[in-house]
Amino acid sequence: MSRIGKLPISIPAGVTVTFNNGVVNVKGPKGELSQKVDPSIIVKIEDGHVTFEVDENSPVNYKQKSAFHGLYRSLVNNMVVGVSEGYKKVLELVGVGYRVSNQGNLIEFSLGYTHPIFIELPAEVKVESKSERNQNPILTLESCDKQLLGLICAKIRSFRKPEPYKGKGILFQGEVIRRKSGKTASAK
Question: Which residues contact 171 (CB under 8 A, 6 or more apart)?
Answer without folding.
Answer: 91, 92, 94, 162, 177
